[in-house]
Amino acid sequence: MGSPDRFELRPSNPAGLASTAGYSQIIEASGNRIVFISGQTSVNSAGETVGIGDFPAQVSQVFRNLEVALREVGCSASNLAKLTVFLRDMNNLAAYRQARNGFLQSVTPPAAPAITLVEVSRLYGADFLIEIEAIAIK
């Protein structure tokens, strides 16, 4: 695995673990660089919170922010090894999954990073409904 000019992400869903849809149980990664992306919220480039009280608008902005951050370092969703997702309300899980699947399927083959998702009582901004941090391999 791993040559000087490329990265490799090998997803695995072993028979001894539950099958998954939209993510991988294990990611084996190799490459030249590990990229850590801070938790992204629904703040746009002008510093304004998008979609106050509107989860679909917020999750769309979060994935737009992730795309911008990945592009800045020469990456795409294909480079994602790990996402950590913080939701304020698990009732938004279906809307999150829809947005996540659209983002991960924007590349060929579709990305399938390892993902941890937790419900939290608060995020750093009172109006934020979701935050996602990422690790990419380049």
Describe this protein's structure.
The chain is an alpha+beta fold. The chain is 22% helix and 28% strand. The protein contains two helices and six strands, in the order E-E-E-H-E-H-E-E. It has helices at residues 55-72, 93-104, and strands at 8-12, 26-30, 34-40, 80-87, 114-119, 130-137. A four-stranded mixed sheet has the order 3-6-4-5. Helix 1 (55-72) packs parallel to helix 2 (93-104). The longest helix has 18 residues, at 55-72. The radius of gyration is 15 Å and the shape is globular. The protein starts with 7 loop residues before the first strand and ends with a strand. The mean pLDDT is 92.
Q: Give the H and E element order.
A: EEEHEHEE
Unreliable parts: none
Outline the biggest β-sheet: 4 strands, mixed
Strand order of the largest sheet: 3-6-4-5
- Arithmetic mean of pLDDT: 92
Give a count of the beta strands, DSSP E runs of length 2 or more: 6
Rg, nearest Å: 15 Å
Terminal CA distance: 13 Å
Report the oligomer: single chain
- Give the structural class: alpha+beta
Distinct helical segment count: 2
Can you give me a brief rundown of this structure?
This protein is of the alpha+beta class and 138 residues long. 22% of the residues lie in helices and 28% in strands.
Topology:
Elements: E1 8-12, E2 26-30, E3 34-40, H1 55-72, E4 80-87, H2 93-104, E5 114-119, E6 130-137
Helix pairs in contact: 1-2
Notable features of this structure?
138 residues, alpha+beta, 2 helices, single chain, globular, 4-stranded mixed beta sheet
